[in-house]
Automatic annotation (TrEMBL):
Domain spans labelled UspA: 21-72
Lineage of the species this protein comes from: Bacteria, Pseudomonadati, Bacteroidota, Flavobacteriia, Flavobacteriales
Domain of life: Bacteria
InterPro entries in the cross-refs: Rossmann-like_a/b/a_fold, UspA
Name used for this protein in its record: Universal stress protein
Organism: Maribacter flavus
């Protein structure tokens, strides 16, 4: 249960009670309160072993498109995110406003963003190369590196990359349903396991 007692004058807590589906209640609150970021704590589907992000959290990351959503797994304590993994297929054009939270977090904590491209072949199309260059321009104010992984399964590639580097966070742009379903659906969450649970930031 959230303890509303707080000694930090920069923070204030307000309780909202409503009778509605969670995603619809969140959307309504975003509109009424002009919310910038949704943060959700989660312990998985009723504490089921191997399931880190429950259905409510997955649905929120998928369906809430009015602002960004951050999911925090159970038992994760705050630590400075020195390394943030940003998986992308370079197929969609990047927008500065969509990456504003990622850039702001990286600046605040002097984080390094690891741009991860997972594919069976590393050759990029002309459009992908253009988008990659645009991403470089957008990330110019922060520290970043590009990484390629030859992997048939995208989710397995991301999981192994995060685990091997002990990364602190995953951030991705939710391009409607395509990339979300192929990368951050429940199968990936189950594969992450309990040793590499990290916060996930879904950017919109």
């Amino acid at each position: 249960m959230l303890k509303l007692h707080n000694d930090n004058p920069k923070h204030a807590f307000h309780t909202i009670s409503t009778y509605n589906y969670l995603s619809e209640a969140i959307k309504r609150t975003i509109a009424e309160k002009d919310i910038d970021l949704i943060v959700m704590g989660t312990q998985g589907a009723s504490g089921t072993k191997g399931v880190i992000f429950g259905s409510n959290t997955v649905k929120a990351m998928e369906k809430i498109r009015e602002c960004s959503v951050m999911a925090i797994p159970k038992n994760v304590k705050f630590s400075i995110p020195k390394e943030i993994v940003f998986p992308t297929n370079f197929k969609a054009t990047f927008k500065r406003r969509k990456l504003s939270y990622l850039i702001e977090i990286a600046k605040m904590f002097e984080s390094t963003v690891r741009v991860l491209y997972v594919s069976k072949k590393h050759d990029l199309t002309e459009l992908q190369e253009i988008n990659k260059q645009l991403l470089q321009d957008i990330m110019e104010p922060i520290k970043y590196n590009f990484h390629n992984l030859t992997e048939n399964d995208v989710s397995e590639g991301i999981t192994s990359f995060v685990e091997s580097r002990n990364s602190d966070m995953i951030a991705f742009i939710n391009h409607k349903h395509f990339f979300f379903n192929s990368v951050f659906s429940k199968p990936l969450v189950k594969e992450i396991g309990y040793k590499a649970i990290v916060p996930i930031l879904a950017l919109h």
